[in-house]
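If you are new to this repository, start here. Below is one unmodified record pulled from the training split, so you can see the exact layout before writing a loader.
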Amino acid sequence: MKKWIVGISVIIIILLILIIILLSYLQADDEISELPGGNQAISSDLYDYEETKTELLTDKTSFYIVTKCISNYLDMVNKTNSLYYGEDANGNYVKVIDDSTIASNILDILDKAYISENNITMKNVYDFVENVETKQIFIPLKMNILPGRVNETYAVYGMIQDLNYQFIKYLYIIVTLDIQNHTYAIQPILDTQYNDIDEITLQDRNKSIEENDNNLYQVENITNEYVSNQYLDSYKKMLLGNPDLAYEYLDEEYKVKRFGDIDTFKKYIQERNILRTLSLKQYSVEIKDEYTQYTCIDQSGNYYIFKETAPMQYTVILDTYTIDLPEFTQKYANSTEEEKVLLNLQKFFEAINQADYAYAYSKLDETFKANNFKTQQDFENYVKSTFFEQNKLSASNPQRQNDIYLYDLSITDATEKNQNTLTKTFVMQLKEGTDFVMSFGVN
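And here is the target side for that same chain:
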């Protein structure tokens, strides 16, 4: 009898446990709502990120999607946007989109929580977004991401220039992407009190962003060529519009050895008129253990070597000769002596193209310098009056006399503005390692 009572008690306890488990499961299931496409969004009390749980963005696709969303936002808030103007019936250039429509479009891409929190309407929208009166170019510098189950939210830091590369200001802004619907939302930050985007706290936006006529983004294939173009273009914009920032991006060892101080760097920029027309001609990409290296060559054969750890997190080297880079020293070591002479000639003219007269002057034979260019300034004056701003080489008629090598060089204008050709004989002696001395026909 007692055994029977014990057995019944055990069964009742098991049933109670099963009922408790079932009730817990049903309660949790009530907190799950289906989204279009079958994805599930967890309620905020179950899916609650710490506000400061952000991380450096490493995904290039997201990086450039967010960049385009910000550029679109800056175009939309620009009251002088050419898209808002057109010809009237009389052929006059007038504003064809009214301010209320523009305000409505801006509301389409603003974060809905931001709108609600600030009671933003079409009438007061410019109290909460910047009133822009000119075309602004956005250059992203750093992004942090707060991952989410429905959305991904980004804290973004960048620089704004006008069309003439003039620096306007630094920008902090928050962008949310709905990764299912391919929609986005913007939360402006008008207060510029931050020193770094790591100071910006983010909240997980766990609601879908409804599609409208203005908030869609496209996912594009980000190739190595695209990134190389972006890096060269972004650094060009820094050089022209914000030299102090461009100086900070230089590789530390290279910065000290090549320039030494910011004033020398700014002089280098001033002497390179080609920067305004800078464009990518060749590139290569090599994945290292700690970084990815993008080697870019412009239309005049100048090098820009970017060592990247995350999108736009790079250091840059502006030539191949100031410091010994492993890939170039290895190539040099594996070359014949005749090939080394050609590589050195290329270095010499790379320096001239870069307005690095100190390096080029240091490679001249001492006797040759004493007879022709007693000072570096004498040499610089000669170069500017004789060679082109950007020089392109073609070598012929190689000769060797003991340890002396001679080459005839045909030198043309790499920019093709001048159709003349210079022909000079260059004489070189190879030294230890990658060192060399040289001279050339002055007349």
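Two things worth knowing about this chain: The radius of gyration is 31 Å. Residues 2-30 form the longest helix (29 residues).
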